[in-house]
Amino acid sequence: MRRIIIIFISSCLLLGISFSPMFSIIREFWIDKKVTVRYEIHQVYQEYGSESHLDVQELMIDNKNIKIEEEQTGRKAPSTFWEETENIEPGDVVKLHFFLNGKEISTSDEIWLSNEDEGSSYFSWLGIFNVYDRKTGEKQIKIIQRLTGITMINESMEGMKWKIISIRKDGKVNEKILSYPHRSDDPLAVQLINYATISPMGIGYYSDITKGYVTYFFPLFYPIFTTLFGLILLVIVLILGYKRRK
Predict the structure, then answer these.
(1) pLDDT at residue 151 above 80?
(2) What are phi and psi of 154, to 5 degrees?
(3) Cβ-count burial of 147 within 10 angstroms (0-12 exposed, 13-18 middle, 19+ buried)?
(4) Which contacts (CB < 8 Å, 24+ apart) does range 186-189 have?
(5) Residue 90: its pLDDT value, please?
(6) Per-residue pLDDT at 234 exceeds 80
(7) Stretch 177-196: mean pLDDT
């Protein structure tokens, strides 16, 4: 009986310390799978022959003319950790204006242009997508712009925000702001932000637990192995308890 109690307590301890991170990991993969199954997502440059849509300031998408105009502010962006590491001069701060068939569809917001040799001047700030909803059959153009900047690699993500402009097939436009603390409100937007790399780091739907570097300790040993071992011990307890009753 004492052996059963010891194994049971060990099982409870392992499952207890593993439950929260394991639940978060499973939830992240489950939501990601649901979004991937429901939506077909294409960055527009993949469909329209441009090397990168971020360097193209005028696009024709499904008979819709989308134009991006830059308004100079006369200011330079703060020097980021990455620019200092690679000895790159910081880019200009500009306000982006978006036009649909000649009509401005959003208020202008600032971005920091990039001076990196590879990538585009809008890298990490702007993404444009064609999104097909397999459930409803609806197709939309999604423009996502990062609204806040980060200069240090260990800077908090809590203040991050993104503007999401949705253009329907009939030309109607909807705009909303998504903040990092409330990112779970729009799982599709989270996936688009990650696809377009318009976040200083990958973000999860509720938690960023699956976006860190994989090591032998985390998550392989903890919480995956500890959860499995805890379940195995629980099964052993049930088997021993059943045999003891017979």
Answers:
(1) no
(2) -105, 15
(3) middle
(4) 187/31, 187/34, 187/35, 188/35, 188/39, 188/131, 189/144, 189/162, 189/164
(5) 85
(6) yes
(7) 96
